[in-house]
Structures are given as structure tokens and as C-alpha cells.
Amino acid sequence: MMKSVFAEIGSKERLRALLAGLYHKMQADPMIGFFFMHQDLDKLIDAQCHFYLFIFGQITTFDGTPPIHAHKKLPPLLEGHFNRRLVLLQETLREWGLSHANQAIWVAFESSFRDAIVHHA
Predict the structure, then answer these.
(1) CA–CA separation, 62 vs 96, rounded Å?
(2) Average pLDDT of span 84-105
(3) Could you list the residue range(s) of the whole structural domain that residue 40 is in?
């Protein structure tokens, strides 16, 4: 199912541009922007692009940091932070014209990380 998302996006360059738009929104967001302070945004975008190229079946190996481990060095990520990222992701996917079906696939995939990433006090 994830391959259909990449097919609709169309290329690695468009995927990176989509992710860049998402990460710039997140960085500017008053609720979650502080997570991106003092971060190399281009490096984060490239890492996400590499991860998604793997998830979308465009490359066969992923040698980066899995999302579960990548978030351990950050301040505690709460439920509201996680939900806000999903809202910004959905907004970005709509802006890029992805079909409702592919938006739902991507959001469901991201949502699958909730229990592993969200800090439960």
C-alpha cells in the first residue's frame, strides 16, 4: 500500500520537497516548533526522505536511525505534540494534492509509532 503513496508523489525530488514543506511548517509551529530549535533542518529532511524512500519501497536498505530511537534525545513528546504533527502532515498532503486514500495510508503509518514515541507520564 505504501508504494501507491510514492507513485502518486512521483519522484524522490518531490518527496523531499513535500517533506521540506512539512518540516518548515513544524519548525514554525507554536506548539511543536521548539523541538526543531538548534536542529539542522536539512539534515532532518534528508534523513526523513531516506526513511520514506525505504518505506515506500524505492530503496532496499535503511541505515539511518529508526523513528523510535531518533526521538529519545528530544524533550518528552506528548500526545498533543504527536497529534499536532499529524495535523500538519495531513495539511501538507492535502496541499500536495495526494488522494484521500494515500493521505489515510501515510497518516495511519505515522500513527503506528504513537505508543513508541509518545511520553506517558
Answers:
(1) 25
(2) 97
(3) 2-117
